[in-house]
Design goal:
elongated; HATPase_dom; 57% helix; Beta-Lactamase; 11 strands; 3 domains; EC 2.7.13.3; Heat Shock Protein 90; four-stranded antiparallel beta sheet; alpha+beta; transmembrane helix; HisK_dim/P_dom; transmembrane
Length: 428
């Protein structure tokens, strides 16, 4: 991620750089065009002045011819010629390049040329004058260097000013952000934001204060509901289950009544388990658990493996363990124990008799794999009340709880099917 200042400055710099790149050829075209127009005007004045001076001398035809010959020999930039029959008496202006005649070194110059008709002693002559325009390129170079210099000065100045201003202008925003980072919903303490003289930041603080106040109120309501539901629902369910247990022990029940009572007992047991799991999910989502403990993950895993050892023996499941020692994580011990137990019981429940289960623990991942025949639907796997099979007697919340516990701790849980085994991984 990039800071806001760099996201604003970078497009601006790119835009200014593009304008600079475009401006250099534009400068060249504009200056070159102006320069040529001035030279054309200059050449036209020379032609008019030359005609005027020759006419003012009132030379004879012979003297005029001698003067023109002398002119052409000593004035390399101009040329006066008699009009030929095929001459259309039209003016022409053009640019060409040539080697300087008075130097041996290779030196190509550009020239702007005017070819026009002048009248001397009422006779037409073709007057050609050429003027060097090489200086325009040097002017463009100077303009380009000057523009680049000022561009660099502007960019450096803007970067310096932006960096200085950001420290003061964005200070209220950073203070607000820092307080939001430290805010803990469990403490239910409102944030007191520092007042700001910037309208946008003051409106942001007011909106955040209202949002936090509403969030705390909603959190309190949900927490009270969770606690009330935990107490009010579990008590009648426990009483009903106790009454059913007494009824099942009665010798006066017929076989049919016994079956009905047994089905009711199973449904009640499942309802009680679902209620506990839903309450657990609600508490996790409401951040009602502390996750700042330093916990030995391997120690909890060893205890859970001993607790389910009887289940392994009942289904004659072979177990392979590859567990590292001294694996320490930050989290909540109760939730981690539930996560481990749910993964192990899920694997046992869906492993056929004489199947196999492997458990792997490293400093970065915890994996439980059990033998199977075909892959599961990964899209529905961690959704609530999504059972892995129709024969499962679970509540459909085990994997959803695993997902929520992993998210609560900042871990990532995933599923894959490889080598005939369902593999559930929790990456720390």
């Amino acid at each position: 991620m990039k800071p806001l200042l760099s996201k604003i400055t970078k497009p601006f710099l790119i835009y200014v750089l593009c304008v600079l790149v475009i401006s250099i050829p534009v400068y060249y075209l504009v200056v070159d065009t102006i320069w040529k127009a001035e030279l054309d005007e200059h050449n036209k004045i020379i032609a008019e002045k030359t005609a005027y001076e020759l006419n003012r001398l009132k030379l004879t035809d012979q003297k005029l011819a001698e003067s023109i010959k002398l002119w052409n020999s000593i004035q390399p930039g101009t040329d006066i010629q008699n009009i030929k029959k095929e001459d259309l008496l039209k003016d022409s202006i053009y640019t060409f390049e040539k080697q300087k005649s008075y130097t041996k070194e290779p030196n190509i110059d550009r020239f702007r040329t005017l070819s026009t008709v002048i009248y001397v002693n009422n006779k037409p002559f073709r007057f050609t004058v050429e003027t060097n325009i090489e200086e325009s390129q040097e002017t463009i170079v100077v303009i380009a260097i000057t523009t680049v210099f000022f561009f660099i000065m502007i960019v450096l100045g803007l970067l310096f000013i932006n960096r200085k201003l950001s420290d003061s202008v964005w200070k209220p925003f950073r203070d607000t952000l820092e307080k939001l980072k430290k805010f803990n919903l469990n403490s239910q303490t409102k944030i007191e934001f520092n007042p700001s003289d910037t309208t946008e930041f003051e409106e942001l603080n007011q909106s955040l204060s209202k949002l936090i106040e509403h969030t705390i109120s909603a959190y309190k309501t949900q927490k009270e509901f969770t606690e009330n539901a935990s107490h009010e629902l579990q008590t009648p369910l426990a009483i009903l289950k106790n009454k059913l247990d007494i009824l099942l022990q009665s010798e006066d029940l017929t076989e049919k009544q016994y079956r009905i009572a047994e089905e009711m007992n199973k449904a009640l047991t499942r309802s009680s388990r679902i209620n506990k799991n839903l309450l657990l999910l609600a508490k996790i989502e409401n951040n009602q658990f502390d996750n700042s403990e330093k916990i030995r993950f391997d120690a909890i895993l060893d205890q859970s493996m001993e607790a389910v050892q009887e289940h392994f023996e009942q289904k004659n499941i072979s177990v392979e363990e590859d567990n590292s020692s001294q694996v320490q994580v930050n989290g909540n011990s109760s939730l981690i124990e539930i996560l481990i137990n749910n993964l192990l019981l899920n694997a046992i429940r869906h492993t056929p008799v004489h199947g196999s289960i492997s458990v792997k623990l490293t400093s970065s991942v915890f994996e439980v794999a059990n033998s199977g025949t075909e892959p599961l639907n990964a899209d529905l796997l961690f959704k609530r009340f999504s059972k892995l099979s129709s024969e499962s007697g679970g509540s459909g919340l085990g994997l959803a709880i695993i997902k929520e516990i992993s998210t609560f701790h900042g871990w990532k849980v995933s599923y894959r099917f490889e080598n005939g085994h369902h593999v559930f991984s929790v990456k720390f």
